[in-house]
Amino acid sequence: MKDQKDRLEALRADIERRNPAQPEFHQAVREVLETLAPVFAARPEYADPAVALVERLTEPERQILFRVPWQDDRGRVHVNRGYRVEFNSALGPYKGGLRFHPSVDIGVVKFLGFEQIFKNALTGLGIGGGKGGSDFDPHGKSDAEVMRFCQSFMTELHRHIGEHTDVPAGDIGVGGREIGYLFGQYRRITNRWEAGVLTGKGQGWGGSAIRPQATGYGSVLFAAEMLAVRGEALDGLSAVVSGSGNVALYTIEKLQRLGANPLTCSDSEGYVVDDKGIDLALLKQIKEVERGRVSEYAARRGSSARFVSGGRVWDVPADVAFPSATQNELEARDARALVAGGVKAVSEGANMPTTPEAVRILQEAGVAFGPGKAANAGGVAVSALEMAQNAGRVAWSEQRVEDELAGIMRSIHTVAHETAERYGAPGDYVVGANIAGFERVADAMLAQGVI
Ligand code: NDP
Ligand code: 2IT
Questions:
Q1: Is the pTM above the cut of 0.85?
Q2: Hey, which end of the chain has fewer CB within 10 Å, N or C?
Q3: Using 50, 70 and 90 to split pLDDT, how confident is the model at 5?
Q4: How far is CA 151 from CA 59, 65, 145, 186, 433, in A?
């Protein structure tokens, strides 16, 4: 075990040296490597330096970086960067979202792509790991500007993707509108109706029922599974949710359907707390229809709600918490605030929202902690179901997709829970999810030879 720890530590140092100035990627790799020592001790074939399995797993198969020029409504030309990191295809075509946000750089895309490998493995479906995006900021842009940007982005990206090669979807800043423009340009350039090249499409033209809801619904289902192990249920519990985008909105919806009371939402300017519980119809109108800010929700809701500029939702005491905005949004002091407020479970709808120190604080306080790789896998799982429907040229009913999603989330919970027990860390879903995802990818890589 000591030897394994030393080898992993040397590997980690080497990865940081070879990938300078990529702190999010370092963080994601460190967090996985830290949990692998027991599986290396039990299965020496994974750790054999002569096979260099971890070295291969942490090096993307391919990284694509390109210029994206586009014109604004006044005719001015802007230049953004486009990225697609095709990280690992041992289990299937590269699969993962596109993020449009000013903070996107190669380190962010690599952290997301690396996480995606294990998340996708956990779904049990045939999808590899990838991620992409751009430093383009869709906030404040007209529909026509977003369309021209998406068309320019796809004009380069199209040569690298395909239903059997690499299948992007949405992430921060990329939703149904952007997927529509991207799909239109792909179809025009290739002259192919290749529905399975992108997921998150509109339901009238190849999209799956429940895909917009899937990540948020899945994150709540995962929390329900964690609570059930402790003999508890969501019904009657209060909840804090961060973010107000795709994942947050449908987390709130599912919580309400299961009888819980979500009290908050947020954006990069601050948060809203609503003592009566979030009015989801109003929030959806502001976010999905008007593309507005959460401060407008407080202004329109009346006396039960207030907007806290610059604050974080974790200061509001609640039974369960759902970080659903972005990476590193829940830090040590936030974890302490949640624990002081009596939180029982935290389920990560976002990718890597909880810092390592905050995870430790929550776990040491006995809080059930569902890491994003497991808890937010419902989105990509329904994307894989969308690919299956596209391949068969069929559309499944809402009920069927919802049942499949529930089954997949249950099975991810079971596998993470059982794997943690098997490796001597009962109740630690971080260990369970990392090892279970790793084993599936590692076995496929070993079987497929040195590539
Ligand atoms: P959206 O773009 O729909 O919403 C993002 C939300 O997070 C917005 O409220 C946004 O506020 C806020 N946010 C984004 N960046 C920051 C930041 N740097 N600081 C503070 N707030 C921020 O994205 P999604 O809901 O799709 O994604 C949210 C998270 O869920 C991400 O971590 C994503 O990777 C993850 N995820 C998404 C999946 C999906 O299917 N969409 C699947 C699995 C995980 P503002 O408008 O002010 O920027
Ligand atoms: O982080 C994620 O899992 C996503 N953004 C969804 C990826 C997908 O291909 O549906």
A1: yes
A2: C
A3: confident
A4: 30, 16, 10, 8, 37
